[in-house]
Each structure stands twice: as C-alpha cells, then as structure tokens.
Design a protein that fits this description.
single chain, 231 residues, alpha/beta, five-stranded mixed sheet, 14 strands, 27% strand, globular
C-alpha cells in the first residue's frame, strides 16, 4: 500500500518490490508471470490492470473498461471507471499518482526527466479536470523514485533545467537535480494545495528493495510496477 492514500479506503495504490520480480512490459509477455503473480498477491484481476507503454512523452490517455490492457504511445493514464487499475513501470523515474476525491477519478503518470520537463504532470492534471475533476479536490503522491542524492547530470543537458535553477545543485564539479522538487513545484503551480501532495521520501537508488536502473545497470531494463484504482 502507498501510505498516502490510506485515508481513502476506496483507493488501492500499490508498488511492487524487487522480490516480486521485474514487471517491465516486454515483447511476447516475457514478464507476464511476474505481473500476474503480483496482481493475484494484491487481490486484483489481471484483466483489470491497464498499462501505459511508456515513451518518455507528455502524452496522457483516458482509460475505459473496454480499453486495451496496454495503452500505446503514452506515459500517463486517467479514468473515471471503477475497478480499472492504472499502471506504469519504474526503475528510477517518478511515478505520480492522482486521486480526485469528489468525482472519484484516478490517474497515474510516469515522469522521467524528459517527460517531466515536457509537461507530463500538467497534462495529466488537465485531463483529470476534463473528466470533471477540480484541482481543489486532487490528491497527488510522488512515489518512490531516484532522489536528488543520486540523480546527477552532465553539463551537456544542464541547459534543459534552466527554468528550474532552484532545483539544481553543483557540488564537487557535479550537478544534482531534485526531480521530485520540480514535480511538486509543477503540481502546486496548477492550484493543487500543498497539503494535498505526498512524497513518501523513498529513493529507488538508496533502497535495495526497489529497482534502480542507475544503481544496478542491468543489460535488460528491470522495473517495478505502480498502480492505482478505485475498488
């Protein structure tokens, strides 16, 4: 259970751990066994889980009960449907979970640094509003992701963060970026109260129970799954 949503009993929000196996979507359903075992473990039917295929984009798509289980060309999903569990896979990128408490809407976004700067957060909020939600009733959790402590960038991409200088720190000739801080800044800028925003504080690089691409450097990407839905 992602602790932030415990106060909403209708919400199921969960993240897998390394012990559950890799959940990365692979051609031919290579990891289907791991995924199905995990869904059974948390009491969700696999055919009610909808997965974004992830392209490091700023695309958001609405999900309906009859939508394909894998939603193409997107990094964020939103729905007004009950018993539709939206999911992304992560191994350092930010999983950002959304719940609109009045209209009972949920959303999830996969935000790597590219998607974050391209507007994936803003676009997800806009899609939830288009479903009838209001920013005042939106609750947002920034899930486990790589922290500023371990997200270093080289000078060749530094200019991409010129609008977020307050979230970049230079130390010993290296640049560290607070991606979670940028995400929170973007969420607040859309009118969501700071008190409605959670951050469990987990750094995937530091937590050996979670997948981290930067730490583990696997030949084939391995990732955990994060999902949210209304039971």
């Amino acid at each position: 259970m992602i602790e932030f949503f415990k106060k909403f009993p209708e919400i199921k929000a969960v993240m897998s751990e390394k012990a559950d196996g890799s959940m990365k979507l692979l051609p031919g359903g290579v990891n289907a066994g791991n995924r199905n075992d995990f869904f059974a473990k948390i009491g969700i039917e696999g055919d009610r889980v909808f997965s974004a295929d992830l392209t490091h984009s700023h695309n958001v798509k609405k999900v309906f009960a009859d939508s394909p289980r894998i939603i193409s060309d997107t990094d964020a999903l939103v729905t007004a449907e009950r018993n539709c569990f939206l999911s992304v896979t992560v191994a350092d990128c930010l999983p950002i979970l959304f719940f609109e408490s009045e209209k009972k809407l949920v959303g999830i976004a996969h935000a790597g640094w590219r998607g974050l700067l391209r507007g994936i957060v803003e676009n997800t909020i806009a899609e939830m509003v288009s479903l009838g939600g209001s920013v005042e009733n939106l609750y947002v959790e920034i899930g486990p992701a790589i922290g500023k402590c371990h997200f270093e960038i080289k000078e060749d991409i530094l200019d991409n963060f010129r609008d977020y200088a307050d979230f970049v720190e230079k130390k010993n000739g290296k640049y560290s970026v607070d991606l979670k801080g940028i995400a929170k800044n973007k969420i607040i800028s859309r009118g969501i109260p700071a008190s409605n925003i959670g951050d469990g504080g987990h750094c995937t690089y530091s937590d050996s129970n979670l997948f981290s691409y930067r730490r583990d450097k696997p030949e084939t990407v391995q990732a955990g799954i994060v999902l949210i839905g209304i039971k």
